[in-house]
Design a protein that fits this description.
2 copies of one chain form a homodimer. The first copy, chain A, has 9 helices and no strands. The first copy, chain A, folds into 2 domains: 7-70, Arc Repressor Mutant, subunit A, CATH 1.10.10; 87-196, Tetracycline Repressor, domain 2 (Orthogonal Bundle). Chain A has helices spanning 7-30, 38-45, 49-55, 59-70, 87-102, 105-120, 122-149, 159-175, 183-196. Chain A binds chain B through residues 33, 112, 115-116, 118-120, 122, 125, 128-129, 133, 158, 160-161, 164-165, 167-169, 171-173, 175-179, 188, 192-193, 195-197, and chain B through 33, 112, 115-116, 118-120, 122, 125, 128-129, 133, 158, 160-161, 164-165, 167-169, 171-173, 175-179, 188, 192-193, 195-197. Chains A, B: InterPro entries: Homeodomain-like_sf, HTH-type_TetR-like_transc_reg, HTH_TetR, Tet_transcr_reg_TetR-rel_C_sf, TetR_C.
Amino acid sequence: MTYEKGPDHSRRKERSRQAILSAARALVMEEAYEKVTVEAIAARAGVGKQTIYRRWPSKSAIVFAALLALSEDADGQSVTLPDTGDLATDLKLVMRATAHEFSDPPFDKLIRALNTEIANDPALAAEYREKLAQPLDEAKKTRLRSAQRAGQLDPEADLDLVLEVLYAPLFQRWLHRSGPLTPAYADSLVDVTLRAFGP
Amino acid sequence: MTYEKGPDHSRRKERSRQAILSAARALVMEEAYEKVTVEAIAARAGVGKQTIYRRWPSKSAIVFAALLALSEDADGQSVTLPDTGDLATDLKLVMRATAHEFSDPPFDKLIRALNTEIANDPALAAEYREKLAQPLDEAKKTRLRSAQRAGQLDPEADLDLVLEVLYAPLFQRWLHRSGPLTPAYADSLVDVTLRAFGP
Protein backbone atom coordinates (compact mmCIF):
# COMPACT_ATOMS: atom_id res chain seq x y z
CA MET A 1 0.00 0.00 0.00
CA THR A 2 1.32 3.46 -0.89
CA TYR A 3 0.19 6.87 0.23
CA GLU A 4 -0.34 9.48 -2.43
CA LYS A 5 1.28 12.74 -1.30
CA GLY A 6 -1.28 15.03 -2.93
CA PRO A 7 -3.02 18.27 -1.83
CA ASP A 8 -4.60 16.56 1.22
CA HIS A 9 -1.19 15.48 2.45
CA SER A 10 0.21 19.02 2.05
CA ARG A 11 -2.77 20.51 3.87
CA ARG A 12 -2.41 18.03 6.72
CA LYS A 13 1.29 18.78 6.96
CA GLU A 14 0.66 22.53 7.06
CA ARG A 15 -2.08 22.08 9.69
CA SER A 16 0.28 20.05 11.87
CA ARG A 17 3.05 22.64 11.43
CA GLN A 18 0.69 25.42 12.51
CA ALA A 19 -0.54 23.37 15.49
CA ILE A 20 3.04 22.74 16.65
CA LEU A 21 4.03 26.40 16.34
CA SER A 22 0.87 27.58 18.18
CA ALA A 23 1.49 25.03 20.93
CA ALA A 24 5.11 26.20 21.28
CA ARG A 25 4.05 29.86 21.50
CA ALA A 26 1.32 29.09 24.03
CA LEU A 27 3.60 27.01 26.26
CA VAL A 28 6.46 29.54 26.22
CA MET A 29 3.99 32.24 27.24
CA GLU A 30 2.56 30.11 30.08
CA GLU A 31 5.67 28.50 31.56
CA ALA A 32 9.24 29.35 32.45
CA TYR A 33 11.12 28.74 29.19
CA GLU A 34 13.49 26.17 30.65
CA LYS A 35 10.49 24.07 31.78
CA VAL A 36 8.98 23.85 28.29
CA THR A 37 9.84 20.49 26.67
CA VAL A 38 9.47 19.11 23.16
CA GLU A 39 7.24 16.42 24.71
CA ALA A 40 4.88 19.07 26.11
CA ILE A 41 4.74 20.90 22.76
CA ALA A 42 3.91 17.61 20.99
CA ALA A 43 1.19 16.77 23.52
CA ARG A 44 -0.38 20.25 23.26
CA ALA A 45 -0.28 20.12 19.44
CA GLY A 46 -1.75 16.59 19.37
CA VAL A 47 1.15 15.16 17.37
CA GLY A 48 3.88 12.63 18.09
CA LYS A 49 7.31 13.79 19.24
CA GLN A 50 8.83 12.27 16.08
CA THR A 51 6.67 14.55 13.92
CA ILE A 52 8.40 17.48 15.58
CA TYR A 53 11.91 16.03 15.42
CA ARG A 54 11.50 15.26 11.69
CA ARG A 55 11.24 19.00 11.12
CA TRP A 56 13.14 20.75 13.95
CA PRO A 57 16.27 19.55 15.78
CA SER A 58 15.63 21.25 19.12
CA LYS A 59 13.27 23.24 21.30
CA SER A 60 15.04 26.49 20.43
CA ALA A 61 14.57 25.78 16.70
CA ILE A 62 10.80 25.31 17.22
CA VAL A 63 10.51 28.48 19.29
CA PHE A 64 12.43 30.39 16.67
CA ALA A 65 10.14 29.05 13.92
CA ALA A 66 7.15 30.05 16.05
CA LEU A 67 8.41 33.61 16.27
CA LEU A 68 9.24 33.65 12.56
CA ALA A 69 5.71 32.51 11.68
CA LEU A 70 4.32 35.53 13.58
CA SER A 71 6.10 37.87 11.16
CA GLU A 72 4.85 36.06 8.02
CA ASP A 73 2.17 38.03 6.27
CA ALA A 74 -0.99 36.09 5.51
CA ASP A 75 -0.30 36.51 1.80
CA GLY A 76 3.41 35.68 2.10
CA GLN A 77 4.39 39.24 1.13
CA SER A 78 7.57 40.63 2.66
CA VAL A 79 7.33 43.39 5.25
CA THR A 80 7.40 47.02 4.11
CA LEU A 81 7.55 50.21 6.15
CA PRO A 82 5.09 53.07 5.69
CA ASP A 83 6.27 55.84 3.35
CA THR A 84 4.16 58.99 3.69
CA GLY A 85 7.08 61.11 2.48
CA ASP A 86 7.84 62.32 6.04
CA LEU A 87 10.59 60.17 7.58
CA ALA A 88 10.10 61.35 11.18
CA THR A 89 6.37 60.55 11.12
CA ASP A 90 6.91 57.13 9.57
CA LEU A 91 9.71 56.14 11.95
CA LYS A 92 7.74 57.30 15.00
CA LEU A 93 4.83 55.12 13.93
CA VAL A 94 7.15 52.11 13.60
CA MET A 95 9.10 52.78 16.82
CA ARG A 96 5.91 53.31 18.86
CA ALA A 97 4.62 49.98 17.53
CA THR A 98 7.92 48.29 18.41
CA ALA A 99 7.90 49.75 21.95
CA HIS A 100 4.31 48.58 22.39
CA GLU A 101 5.10 45.08 21.13
CA PHE A 102 8.06 44.65 23.50
CA SER A 103 5.85 45.83 26.39
CA ASP A 104 3.32 43.07 25.68
CA PRO A 105 3.86 40.35 28.34
CA PRO A 106 3.32 37.25 26.13
CA PHE A 107 5.52 38.62 23.34
CA ASP A 108 8.07 39.67 25.97
CA LYS A 109 8.35 36.10 27.24
CA LEU A 110 8.73 34.61 23.76
CA ILE A 111 11.37 37.04 22.55
CA ARG A 112 13.23 36.97 25.88
CA ALA A 113 13.47 33.17 25.73
CA LEU A 114 14.70 33.35 22.16
CA ASN A 115 17.24 36.04 23.01
CA THR A 116 18.72 33.77 25.65
CA GLU A 117 19.17 31.00 23.10
CA ILE A 118 20.57 33.38 20.48
CA ALA A 119 23.09 34.92 22.88
CA ASN A 120 24.51 31.48 23.67
CA ASP A 121 24.18 29.72 20.30
CA PRO A 122 26.16 31.25 17.40
CA ALA A 123 24.42 28.99 14.84
CA LEU A 124 20.96 30.10 15.97
CA ALA A 125 22.20 33.71 16.04
CA ALA A 126 23.23 33.34 12.38
CA GLU A 127 19.86 31.85 11.46
CA TYR A 128 18.08 34.65 13.34
CA ARG A 129 20.08 37.25 11.42
CA GLU A 130 19.47 35.60 8.05
CA LYS A 131 15.77 34.77 8.39
CA LEU A 132 14.41 37.50 10.65
CA ALA A 133 16.73 40.41 11.36
CA GLN A 134 18.12 40.93 7.86
CA PRO A 135 14.79 40.91 5.97
CA LEU A 136 13.40 43.39 8.54
CA ASP A 137 16.55 45.50 8.28
CA GLU A 138 16.26 45.50 4.48
CA ALA A 139 12.68 46.79 4.71
CA LYS A 140 13.85 49.55 7.05
CA LYS A 141 16.80 50.43 4.80
CA THR A 142 14.47 50.72 1.78
CA ARG A 143 12.59 53.40 3.70
CA LEU A 144 15.85 55.12 4.75
CA ARG A 145 17.13 55.14 1.15
CA SER A 146 13.89 56.80 0.06
CA ALA A 147 14.54 59.45 2.74
CA GLN A 148 18.11 59.90 1.49
CA ARG A 149 16.76 60.55 -2.02
CA ALA A 150 14.24 63.02 -0.57
CA GLY A 151 17.03 64.94 1.20
CA GLN A 152 15.78 64.01 4.71
CA LEU A 153 18.81 61.89 5.67
CA ASP A 154 22.57 62.25 5.05
CA PRO A 155 23.16 60.51 1.69
CA GLU A 156 26.50 59.22 3.06
CA ALA A 157 25.02 57.77 6.27
CA ASP A 158 25.94 54.15 7.13
CA LEU A 159 22.43 52.65 7.25
CA ASP A 160 23.47 49.76 9.53
CA LEU A 161 24.66 52.33 12.04
CA VAL A 162 21.46 54.37 11.62
CA LEU A 163 19.39 51.28 12.47
CA GLU A 164 21.57 50.47 15.47
CA VAL A 165 21.24 53.98 16.90
CA LEU A 166 17.47 53.85 16.32
CA TYR A 167 16.75 50.38 17.73
CA ALA A 168 19.58 49.30 20.06
CA PRO A 169 18.71 51.71 22.91
CA LEU A 170 15.14 50.35 22.97
CA PHE A 171 16.41 46.76 22.79
CA GLN A 172 18.87 47.26 25.65
CA ARG A 173 16.30 49.09 27.80
CA TRP A 174 13.89 46.23 27.26
CA LEU A 175 16.44 43.45 27.86
CA HIS A 176 17.82 45.01 31.06
CA ARG A 177 14.44 46.40 32.17
CA SER A 178 16.27 49.70 32.74
CA GLY A 179 13.48 52.09 31.82
CA PRO A 180 9.92 52.44 30.48
CA LEU A 181 9.17 51.83 26.78
CA THR A 182 6.74 54.73 26.33
CA PRO A 183 5.56 56.39 23.09
CA ALA A 184 7.54 59.49 24.18
CA TYR A 185 10.68 57.37 24.47
CA ALA A 186 10.06 55.87 21.01
CA ASP A 187 9.70 59.39 19.59
CA SER A 188 12.87 60.60 21.31
CA LEU A 189 14.90 57.82 19.64
CA VAL A 190 13.65 58.98 16.25
CA ASP A 191 14.49 62.61 17.04
CA VAL A 192 17.99 61.69 18.23
CA THR A 193 18.64 59.52 15.16
CA LEU A 194 17.51 62.24 12.76
CA ARG A 195 19.71 64.81 14.52
CA ALA A 196 22.69 62.45 14.27
CA PHE A 197 22.12 61.53 10.62
CA GLY A 198 20.35 64.61 9.27
CA PRO A 199 21.33 65.94 5.82
CA MET B 1 36.93 26.20 72.99
CA THR B 2 36.04 29.42 71.21
CA TYR B 3 37.51 30.99 68.12
CA GLU B 4 38.48 34.59 68.31
CA LYS B 5 37.22 36.37 65.18
CA GLY B 6 40.16 38.73 64.90
CA PRO B 7 42.30 39.95 61.99
CA ASP B 8 43.39 36.40 61.08
CA HIS B 9 39.78 35.32 60.73
CA SER B 10 39.00 38.32 58.48
CA ARG B 11 42.03 37.63 56.33
CA ARG B 12 41.09 33.94 55.99
CA LYS B 13 37.55 34.91 55.05
CA GLU B 14 38.75 37.36 52.43
CA ARG B 15 41.21 34.78 51.02
CA SER B 16 38.43 32.22 50.74
CA ARG B 17 36.15 34.80 49.08
CA GLN B 18 38.83 35.62 46.51
CA ALA B 19 39.52 31.90 45.89
CA ILE B 20 35.81 31.25 45.28
CA LEU B 21 35.45 34.20 42.89
CA SER B 22 38.61 33.24 40.95
CA ALA B 23 37.40 29.65 40.70
CA ALA B 24 34.01 30.82 39.42
CA ARG B 25 35.63 33.07 36.80
CA ALA B 26 38.02 30.32 35.68
CA LEU B 27 35.27 27.72 35.36
CA VAL B 28 32.89 29.99 33.47
CA MET B 29 35.68 30.78 31.02
CA GLU B 30 36.54 27.09 30.53
CA GLU B 31 33.13 25.42 30.40
CA ALA B 32 29.70 25.99 28.94
CA TYR B 33 27.96 28.12 31.58
CA GLU B 34 25.11 25.67 32.15
CA LYS B 35 27.65 22.93 32.99
CA VAL B 36 29.33 24.96 35.75
CA THR B 37 28.06 23.87 39.18
CA VAL B 38 28.44 25.25 42.70
CA GLU B 39 30.11 21.92 43.57
CA ALA B 40 32.76 22.43 40.89
CA ILE B 41 33.40 26.01 42.05
CA ALA B 42 33.82 24.78 45.64
CA ALA B 43 36.20 21.99 44.57
CA ARG B 44 38.32 24.37 42.47
CA ALA B 45 38.46 26.92 45.30
CA GLY B 46 39.31 24.25 47.86
CA VAL B 47 36.36 25.10 50.12
CA GLY B 48 33.23 23.27 51.18
CA LYS B 49 29.96 23.86 49.32
CA GLN B 50 28.44 25.23 52.53
CA THR B 51 31.10 27.96 52.67
CA ILE B 52 29.76 29.16 49.33
CA TYR B 53 26.08 28.83 50.25
CA ARG B 54 26.61 30.80 53.47
CA ARG B 55 27.49 33.79 51.30
CA TRP B 56 25.71 33.37 47.95
CA PRO B 57 22.33 31.77 47.26
CA SER B 58 23.00 30.56 43.70
CA LYS B 59 25.49 30.05 40.91
CA SER B 60 24.34 33.24 39.17
CA ALA B 61 24.93 35.24 42.38
CA ILE B 62 28.53 33.94 42.58
CA VAL B 63 29.19 34.68 38.92
CA PHE B 64 27.78 38.16 39.36
CA ALA B 65 29.99 38.74 42.41
CA ALA B 66 32.96 37.47 40.38
CA LEU B 67 32.27 40.05 37.69
CA LEU B 68 31.70 42.78 40.25
CA ALA B 69 35.07 42.00 41.90
CA LEU B 70 36.78 42.61 38.54
CA SER B 71 35.53 46.20 38.54
CA GLU B 72 36.69 46.90 42.11
CA ASP B 73 39.76 49.07 42.17
CA ALA B 74 42.62 47.76 44.26
CA ASP B 75 42.27 50.73 46.60
CA GLY B 76 38.47 50.55 46.70
CA GLN B 77 38.12 53.89 44.87
CA SER B 78 35.12 54.32 42.62
CA VAL B 79 35.60 54.42 38.87
CA THR B 80 36.17 57.77 37.16
CA LEU B 81 36.42 58.62 33.48
CA PRO B 82 39.34 60.55 32.00
CA ASP B 83 38.76 64.30 31.66
CA THR B 84 41.33 65.93 29.38
CA GLY B 85 38.89 68.74 28.57
CA ASP B 86 38.09 67.22 25.15
CA LEU B 87 34.93 65.11 25.36
CA ALA B 88 35.37 63.36 21.99
CA THR B 89 38.92 62.24 22.85
CA ASP B 90 37.94 60.99 26.29
CA LEU B 91 34.87 59.11 25.08
CA LYS B 92 36.78 57.49 22.21
CA LEU B 93 39.37 56.21 24.70
CA VAL B 94 36.62 54.72 26.86
CA MET B 95 34.60 53.27 23.97
CA ARG B 96 37.69 51.71 22.36
CA ALA B 97 38.53 50.09 25.70
CA THR B 98 34.94 48.82 26.01
CA ALA B 99 34.97 47.39 22.47
CA HIS B 100 38.29 45.68 23.19
CA GLU B 101 37.05 44.24 26.47
CA PHE B 102 33.90 42.77 24.87
CA SER B 103 36.06 41.24 22.11
CA ASP B 104 38.17 39.37 24.69
CA PRO B 105 37.01 35.70 24.63
CA PRO B 106 37.20 34.95 28.41
CA PHE B 107 35.43 38.21 29.31
CA ASP B 108 32.91 37.55 26.52
CA LYS B 109 31.98 34.20 28.08
CA LEU B 110 31.59 35.63 31.57
CA ILE B 111 29.45 38.59 30.60
CA ARG B 112 27.40 36.53 28.13
CA ALA B 113 26.58 34.02 30.87
CA LEU B 114 25.61 36.81 33.22
CA ASN B 115 23.49 38.52 30.59
CA THR B 116 21.50 35.34 30.15
CA GLU B 117 20.78 35.23 33.88
CA ILE B 118 19.95 38.95 34.02
CA ALA B 119 17.56 38.76 31.07
CA ASN B 120 15.57 36.02 32.80
CA ASP B 121 15.83 37.07 36.45
CA PRO B 122 14.33 40.48 37.33
CA ALA B 123 15.85 40.38 40.86
CA LEU B 124 19.35 39.82 39.51
CA ALA B 125 18.72 42.51 36.87
CA ALA B 126 17.89 44.95 39.69
CA GLU B 127 21.03 43.99 41.61
CA TYR B 128 23.10 44.36 38.43
CA ARG B 129 21.67 47.85 37.87
CA GLU B 130 22.23 48.92 41.48
CA LYS B 131 25.73 47.52 42.04
CA LEU B 132 27.36 47.64 38.63
CA ALA B 133 25.47 49.57 35.95
CA GLN B 134 24.42 52.60 38.01
CA PRO B 135 27.84 53.34 39.61
CA LEU B 136 29.42 53.09 36.14
CA ASP B 137 26.67 55.27 34.65
CA GLU B 138 27.20 57.83 37.40
CA ALA B 139 30.92 58.02 36.58
CA LYS B 140 30.05 58.53 32.90
CA LYS B 141 27.44 61.18 33.73
CA THR B 142 29.96 63.11 35.84
CA ARG B 143 32.14 63.36 32.71
CA LEU B 144 29.13 64.36 30.56
CA ARG B 145 28.11 67.09 33.04
CA SER B 146 31.63 68.49 32.89
CA ALA B 147 31.24 68.59 29.07
CA GLN B 148 27.88 70.35 29.43
CA ARG B 149 29.54 73.03 31.59
CA ALA B 150 32.33 73.33 28.98
CA GLY B 151 29.77 73.90 26.21
CA GLN B 152 30.62 70.62 24.42
CA LEU B 153 27.23 68.97 25.01
CA ASP B 154 23.64 70.25 24.93
CA PRO B 155 22.98 71.44 28.53
CA GLU B 156 19.39 70.15 28.21
CA ALA B 157 20.41 66.65 27.02
CA ASP B 158 18.88 63.67 28.85
CA LEU B 159 22.08 61.97 30.06
CA ASP B 160 20.45 58.54 30.35
CA LEU B 161 19.51 58.79 26.68
CA VAL B 162 23.03 59.99 25.78
CA LEU B 163 24.52 56.90 27.46
CA GLU B 164 22.04 54.60 25.72
CA VAL B 165 22.85 56.02 22.28
CA LEU B 166 26.56 55.73 23.03
CA TYR B 167 26.63 52.21 24.48
CA ALA B 168 23.52 50.27 23.36
CA PRO B 169 24.59 49.84 19.70
CA LEU B 170 27.87 48.26 20.84
CA PHE B 171 26.05 46.09 23.38
CA GLN B 172 23.52 44.85 20.82
CA ARG B 173 26.20 44.24 18.16
CA TRP B 174 28.15 42.21 20.71
CA LEU B 175 25.14 40.25 22.02
CA HIS B 176 23.83 39.36 18.56
CA ARG B 177 27.32 39.04 17.03
CA SER B 178 25.99 41.24 14.23
CA GLY B 179 29.18 43.11 13.37
CA PRO B 180 32.81 43.72 14.34
CA LEU B 181 33.73 45.73 17.47
CA THR B 182 36.62 47.67 15.95
CA PRO B 183 38.26 50.89 17.19
CA ALA B 184 36.74 52.64 14.13
CA TYR B 185 33.28 51.44 15.19
CA ALA B 186 33.88 52.69 18.76
CA ASP B 187 34.89 56.08 17.35
CA SER B 188 31.84 56.26 15.08
CA LEU B 189 29.51 55.78 18.07
CA VAL B 190 31.16 58.75 19.78
CA ASP B 191 30.86 60.89 16.63
CA VAL B 192 27.18 59.98 16.20
CA THR B 193 26.41 60.69 19.86
CA LEU B 194 28.12 64.07 19.76
CA ARG B 195 26.25 65.03 16.57
CA ALA B 196 22.95 64.01 18.18
CA PHE B 197 23.58 65.82 21.48
CA GLY B 198 25.90 68.62 20.41
CA PRO B 199 25.40 72.10 21.92
